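G., the chain you wanted modeled:
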Amino acid sequence: MKFGDMEEKILAALEGGLPYLKTVGTYAGQFEADVKTMPAPFPAAYVVYRGSSFEPVDSANHMETADFTVLAAARGFSGGEDLRKSGYGIYRMTDDIILTLTNQRFGLDIAPVRPLRLSLVFASKTVAVYAVDFRTSFDRTF
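Predicted structure as tokens:
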């Protein structure tokens, strides 16, 4: 098992479980530009691997704990209420992301994925971005 495999499984789960998302991908700095003028279609979700910690089990085996973040981005054109609570507003998106990924194993030999935190990344009158952090663990041999 490698964290890259997990990232692919998370992307596939989001694409299959949230069909209203217009963009699903790996985060590669999309929000470094002016988020209000991003060309990517909204609503969008981007997955980023945040890192791992390792606990030795024996000389070759380790328990890897991997953290991932899903960045949920929504755009609303009529102001804050629409952005937050419309049919596919940011509140629904974050709830759906948590429901879609929590307790998943994706057919892999991993601990169930669990949510850690939901936090605001960016908000304006027309765009909101939230980070949903997740964690799983699995045996890894080096």
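The mean pLDDT is 88.

Shout if anything looks off.
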